[in-house]
Amino acid sequence: MSALPPTGAERLIQCLEREGVEYIFGLSGGAAMPIFDALVDSNIKLIMVRHEQGATHMADGYARATGKPGVVLVTSGPGATNTVTGLLTALMDSVPIIVLCGQTVSPMLGKDAFQEADVTGITYPVVKHSYLVKDGADIPRVTREAFYIASTGRPGPVLIDLPKDVTQGPCEAPFVDDVELPGYRVPSRADPDDIAAAAELLKSAKRPLLYVGNGAVISGAGKAIITLAERLRAPIVNTLLGKGAADETHPLHLGMLGMHGTAYANKAVVDCDLIMSIGARWDDRITGKLDEFCVDAVKIHVDVDPSEFNKMVPLDLAIHGDARLVVEDLLPMIEPGDTEAWLAQCDEWRRKYPLKYPKQGGLRAQHVLDRLHALTLGNAVIATDVGQHQMWAAQFCLSTTNRNWLSSGGAGTMGYGFPAAIGAQFGQPNKEVWSVSGDGGFQMTQAELATAAIHKLPVKCLIINNNYLGMVRQWQELFYDNRYSGVDLEGNPDFVKLAQAYGIQAWRIKRPADVDRILKLAHAYNEGPCVVVAEVVKEDNVFPMIPAGAAIKDMLIEKPRVRMEKPTGST
Amino acid sequence: MAAPALRPMPASEKTGIHTISLFVHDRPGVLVRVALVFARRGYNIESLVVSPSAAGGFSRMTMTCSGDPATLDQIIRQLAKLVDVVSAIDHTGDQSYETEIALIKLDVQDDDRTQVLQVAEHFNAKVVDYAQTSIVLRVYGGSEKLDALINLLRAYGISELVRSGKILMARGGSET
């Protein structure tokens, strides 16, 4: 008897194996059954989740922690629509994920078949690219293109919609190695004239500042950036997503800039005479009021995506290329600058306006995160959720290693942190991985406790519980006359008991004196996942703060005594 | 110092109606992806012509729209970024050859007929359908010429109007 040809689903799985896929994060369903069936005979490990959104954030966390694309497999209709938030999260933060969706059989497309949704249509605005595969023979080409597009240039999510007749039918199409995409260009080295122009501008700057973003993380530009900073004698600041690209504990590093950045980083932004973005896109969280942002400073922007040039601020020089290659090309042309006065000024700001928090008056999130940093020293992967705890973690948990900091920046997706930590732990089994969540965001994807438990993943989940949606509450306190609306999380479960219900080890921190002891217990616990619930003071505020749409110079170092006008900027 | 690696965009020349030419990979969904770049920013596409190109597997899109120059510059960069878009060029203000076709149906009474035909002749419009109570004119040329003719004919009762939308080709060795 001659061997049967492979099915489309089997061919697809073979293609994924050729791409080096180790894990697929997924949830099954009718239209995806041929693909799940083909996985039974594959070495690729299926990580079954409890909700498709969790799968997308796991793939995202895996991708951010390893640099390799994360893969998601879901069924049609609601299975696919549940990935939309994860796609947006990955698109906004340039994360390579591949989402494979089952789809109804192709003759039923557009006929309101059971669990049919126009998935390519629904997802157009949240993907880098997408495919609806109508012919099984396209599977090898589409898969190769999807991985290539997701992981090169400015990375991003790619969706492949796979009708069940296509995955169930035969597919003998050969594997594809080379892609032919005439509309897709991946830049590498920049124009040497632009590099020379940058060197010239840097040479004449008295108060240069390197502004480092996610592009530097993605291209691995950190070492080159540190060398550049040392040669120029220029300080570094990074965005929320740029954390870890260049060691934040380096003496020239001023930490995070922007809305909740350090005061000294933001003061450096206000006073610099040259600001050079290395893979950062002048986001509204960074610039504040655009009309007053670095008005007199020379602005250089290095980006792999030319659509970012001049989008937010008018540039003096745009350098189109990969961040690491651009900085490396620049290094031989750099002459040491006379910046000692500038560095002394930055150090004075650092001394004068340190990050601080009250040591009395109950347990503070800042205290817990400060001690978490003291315990892990930037060597652990930290995945955060979104809100106050995220900003405090960004302030206190300095990142020393590339790809150790995972956070939803552009989309600000609550529910991201815990599943992202699970994905990161799969990708980095030998690293210590912590998720830091608030009580609000954690509940959005807490069903993945089961996923962590069944795989005995040693991921550590810190929940900062203030029984509020704290960031919105902070805004209501500062700008809306304390009129709290939709922020009280009355009805929260006992998170320790919740973890225990999944068979997960859990501890509670109630007093400042408990912090070190319990963090150390969690640090040492490797039998499986564990949960640490820090019951922190209910009402606390993140400072420094630049209200949305305000100028950076109007940064609040502490709570203002006068009533504030409502912010004019975006959210 | 070398000029920034950006397309020069003198604001004075690039305001008003823009004509953008796209060379796209002929794949399902490409039109939606292009349209969404405009729709997301609340921009209206005023005319759109899609047709096969000289190269098999690729199409040519010619579109016109109006808006502020900075947003349109961003729109063109976002169009160029689409995987299926090979090139996106704003031809506004350059010396490209542009043309458009219109079909105009008029409900004409006997006493107006002669005047309508005189106007048509002046604009090189051809009568392509001649019926008891209506005539259909076909005219091609620059959009301004078509606008002028249509404005003149409104007095005689235009019952239907179809315009192809502008098409364009760069002159000489320039890329469209």
What does this protein structure show overall?
The complex is a heterodimer of chains A (571) and B (176). By secondary structure, chain A is α/β, with parallel strands linked by helices. In chain A, the strands form 3 sheets. A 6-stranded parallel sheet of chain A has the order 2-1-3-4-6-5, with helices on both faces. Chain A has a 6-stranded parallel sheet with strand order 9-8-7-10-11-12, with helices on both faces. Chain A starts with 7 loop residues before the first helix and ends in a 36-residue tail after the last strand. By secondary structure, chain B is α+β, with helices and mostly antiparallel strands. Chain B has 2 domains: 16-90, Alpha-Beta Plaits, CATH 3.30.70; 97-169, Alpha-Beta Plaits, CATH 3.30.70. Chain B has helices spanning 30-39, 69-81, 110-122, 143-153; strands at residues 17-25, 45-52, 58-66, 85-90, 97-107, 126-130, 134-141, 158-163, 167-169. In chain B, strands 5, 6, 7, 8 and 9 form a 5-stranded antiparallel sheet that branches. In chain B, a hairpin with a 5-residue loop joins strand 2 (45-52) and strand 3. The radius of gyration of chain B is 19 Å and the shape is elongated. At the A-B interface, strand 5, helix 9 and strand 12 of A face helix 1 and helix 2 of B.
Q: What is the end-to-end distance of chain A?
A: 66 Å
Count all strands of chain B and give the number. 9
- The CATH first-level class of the largest domain in chain B comes to Alpha Beta
Rg of chain B, Å, rounded: 19 Å
> How would you name the CATH homologous superfamily of the largest domain in chain B?
ACT domain
Mean pLDDT of chain A: 97
Shape of chain A: globular
How many distinct domains of chain B? 2
Q: What class, by secondary structure content of chain B?
A: alpha+beta
Main beta-sheet annotation of chain B = 5 strands, antiparallel
Percent strand of chain A: 15-25%
Low-pLDDT sequence parts of chain A: none
At the fold tier of CATH, the topology name of the largest domain in chain B is: Alpha-Beta Plaits
